[in-house]
Amino acid sequence: MSTPLAIELLGVRRGFARSGFALEVDRLEVPAGSSLALLGPSGSGKSTLLHLLALLEAPDAGSVRIGGREVTPADRDVRLQIAAVFQRPYLFKGSVLANVAYGLKVRGVERTERERRATAAFETVGLAGYETRGVAQLSGGEAQRVSLARALAIEPRVLLLDEPLASLDPLLRRQLARDFARIARESGATTVWVTHDQDEALIVADRTAVLRDGRIAAHGSADDVMALPVDEWTAAFLGVAAAQRGRVVGSADGLVEIAVGEARVFASGEAEIGAEVHVAVRPEDVLLFAAGSEMPVTTARNRLPARVTSLEPRGATLYATLDAGGALLASTVSRAAATELALATGTDTLAVFKATAVRWRPIDNG
Questions:
Q1: Which runs of E-coded beta strand occur in the chain?
Q2: Lowest mean pLDDT across 53-62, 129-138, 235-244, 265-274
Q3: pLDDT value for 365
């Protein structure tokens, strides 16, 4: 396993005169050995940013630093330590083994060692025994596994993945996302994964950055970014309610009591009384019960009377927004549950969620 390299972008700008689009990143860090998911809508700059990291392009201003030093596309020694996997596998005609060993061949690795490392890469991605097959015999998922094996065979210190699963069907995509994430972690490489799928981002990365119009709208741990979006645009893009401001009114026995409007929300942790915080709960963690009904036995500390303010279909489920005495919540509800509860705009209900499901962080007023 090679030693991973840290990645850092400082004051980076990359503009395109014809379209008028410009990527502008004041600062972005990916610690050595960690994984970052780049999320954002189409045209937000994800692929441009990845091209800069892959040293396929140079920024118009600012610097890209890999392994603690500024690098450019002319730094061939660094480029040879970077591997990329794209949405299309880009396999050439011939055997699967020849494809996986290609990167080693151009790096001057002798044949016996090439074949050894290629065979190990096949085993890593679950394709042992595929070496002699032709690429035309591969399914879409197998072709992407070969593409990943080709990247891993060179033992990269930086691994870049540009929506590698986007063209696959949803079921296969979820399965491969878990497999690819595990393999990338075990490789030890610093990993950057571009995706437009937030569920995929939670699977593959421990940190997330959300891009909007060429700028980073949110950046931090995957849990914080997904559960505590502090602006309306990021919240809408992620499909959750924006974090709200609250004030700590109690803290004891590992529980924090937070006043949000007239509601009181309990969360795990400790904080100073009077501290101002951002607080949010992901919709999948909020269960709804009929108002006034007898609840089943539960350890959930939060049980808030709430009124449905909107009800929106989202595929197989419904997305309900709720007002619980000034605490604005959301809940993902199955269609069967919505029918049973007779949910509609204006319906009174009971929102139930555990203290451990509440995400919060202090507000820096400095």
A1: 7-15, 22-30, 35-39, 61-66, 69-71, 82-85, 158-162, 190-194, 207-212, 215-221, 244-252, 255-260, 263-268, 276-281, 287-290, 302-314, 317-324, 327-334, 348-353, 358-362
A2: 235-244
A3: 67
The rounded distance, in Å, linking the Cα atoms of 270 and 362 is 11
CB 204 within 8 A of CB 254: no
What CATH architecture does domain 244-362 belong to?
Beta Barrel (2.40)
Rounded Cα distance, 104 and 92, in Å: 15
DSSP 233-288: HHHHHHTSPPPEEEEEEEEETTEEEEEETTEEEEEES---TT-EEEEEE-GGG-EE
Q: What is the pTM of this model?
A: 0.80
- Rounded CA-CA distance 324/258 in Å is 14
- Take residue 62 and report the two structure tokens written for it: 């600012």
The CATH number given to 5-238 is 3.40.50.300
pLDDT digits (tens, 9 = 90+) for 128-147: 888 889 998 998 888 988 99
Say how many Å lie between the first and final Cα of the chain, rounded: 43
Segments making up each domain of the chain, as ranges: 5-238, 244-362
Angle at 226 between CA 151 and CA 5, to 5 degrees: 35
Tell me the average pLDDT across 21-43. 93
Q: How far apart are CA 361 and CA 279, in angstroms?
A: 7
Tokens (6 digits) for 41: 């809508």
Main-chain phi, psi angles of 148, to 5 degrees = -70, -40
Q: What is the pLDDT of residues 286-315, one digit of tens each?
A: 999 999 877 777 789 999 999 999 999 988
